[in-house]
Amino acid sequence: MTRAILHRAGAGPGGAKSGEGALVEVAARTGIDVSVIVPVHNCRAYLDRCLTSLLIQRVSMEIVVVDDGSVDGGSELADLYASCHPRTIRVVHQEASGGAGGPRNTGLSLARGRYVFFCDADDYLGPEALERMLAMAERNGSDIVLGKIVGHGRRAPVSMFNESVDRAPLEDSAVYNSLSCFKLFRREMLERHRIRFDESLLVGEDIVFTTHAYCHAGVISVVADYDCYHLVDRPDGTSIMQRPASRDALSWLRMIKKPIELMVGHVRPGPLRDHLLRRHFRMDAFARLGRPFLEAGEVERKEIAAEVADMCDRWMTDGVRDRLGAVDRSRIAALEDIDRLVRLAHIELAVVRRELTGLRWDEGDTRLAVTGRVALDALEPDRHPEIVTGAVTLVLRPRQASEGQDDVTVPVIRQGEAFAGVLDLGVLSPGVWDVHVAVECEGVVRTARLGADRDGQIARPAPRMIGGVIALPYFTRPYGNLSVDIGGHVVTPSGVVRLARSRWAAGHRLVLDGEITMGAITPDARAVRRLVWRERSSGRERRVPVAARAGGGFTARQAFGRLGPGTWDAYLELDLGGPPARFRIEAEAELVAPPRTWWRGVVLRTVKPYATAGKGRLSVIVRTVTPKAFLRRFLP
């Protein structure tokens, strides 16, 4: 019946199909939320895991298995699953079509769910994948939901999965970087716009499909906090995408023109189209001028360059060009110079060999002297044209750039592969800054993190105070790259706060005298902000002003009549230019004031300062007793 509805539907007013209402009615009547379409062709070894991962999904669904002429027993296994789960699994058998587009279209024509998800038979889903994606779609009225993809022996897209997004704008996000069909699609949208797979394509049929869907999607959502789709590499290399023909550069360039033509036919000229075209130029066109270009023969290189030039003639705009990096802009200018394209490919693929050979404080302990070695090593040393490197610089890059934070470029002195430079940390705003080394070659700048390869004698420099802000050089984990934390955002400043004396004063105030030491650093008196009392069980806090002195000394007074019952731990809080830094106050038992008891109105209050066992840190126990409780305790 569903097949008849799909075939009967024609164009209706407003671009809708005349059968659209009937289709929605069928979906509502069946109560199916998701139709999962699984094309199967000789995947017997993987089909068990795939179907099991689908059957445990906690959504109302149907599984449409389309056997595309399997001869390895996969057809029989699919029938066995359907016989065991007749209400969930349907199996369709057809002659081998040679690609995934045909069986996916067959499954789509039979689908009855409100949403459709495509899953290849050699891949599988996380147990909560459909539940999470469906919840996202229902909450936002999504037409497409991207679930995080993880690769097992295969490369998976990552740029669009940095965070979950309810509504990801196509123009200002990375969702268009992912053009695989492993997504949740609203079926009504697919039917209304006749979105189908191109069965003439052996490779790239899903790119055409997904590009078309993006063009009509009103709301696109991303589930990034859960591993939804598991992309699996077949060790035998029998997957279509693992065959050598699927990686042929010329075939890919000719194929990719179809989705580009489709996209430009739907998206008017402007920033959105330029953003989408940038993806195709970077990931589809110019990527073929890298390693595939070097692996190609002389004649094929000319053909690849000609195909890319044709794409540039048809779709390159100033807006696209402005969005490209230096390497790709250089390639555009060199499309008629094959030798130049070869050199650019070698430069792009070369390994930035770098080593940190020295790191120390210099000139008043505000500048960090850095020495090292850097060079570009081609992947094929015996076959590449000579690569002559130019300028070398050090680059300080904010890890999470905020408004007004830009890269800081530092010139260096260079002699052969060796270089030396000085990082003035006083010019850096608070935050974490990663240190890179940049090498220029024929107008192209290659940048790489510095520090992982270093002399074994190099130690992490001690922290320094620069203009009232702490600077903490450190090596990242697990990679060991050099970074600088200005203000103590990810590196906890080390310090020791010791109690020098404590005594009771008028008003039942506990007076604390102490000092803070931070290794070679003497914090400015202005950095000492307050004393913080934190109740151990509830987390409640009381803050007390501190009188700070030069040299790290301080005095604080706490009126304990204001603290409720509980165990209160003492911290000294400092402002070091970033998040507040807290240090527990260490105390020797003989320096701690004795307990004190007094009546406040009808309440008996007892305050007992003490040094904790083990580490000897200052805490205070506060107890209160009402007359009723007092009598209950002492009278029979």
UniProtKB/TrEMBL annotation:
Pfam families: Glycos_transf_2 (PF00535), TarS_linker (PF22181). The keyword Transferase applies. InterPro entries: Glyco_trans_2-like (IPR001173), Nucleotide-diphossugar_trans (IPR029044), TarS/TarP_linker (IPR054028). The keyword Transcription regulation does not apply. Transmembrane segments: none annotated. Residues 261-344 form the TarS/TarP linker domain. Residues 35-190 form the Glycosyltransferase 2-like domain. Keywords: Glycosyltransferase, Transferase. One of its GO terms (molecular function) is glycosyltransferase activity. It comes from the Bacteria. This is Glycosyltransferase. It comes from Planobispora longispora.
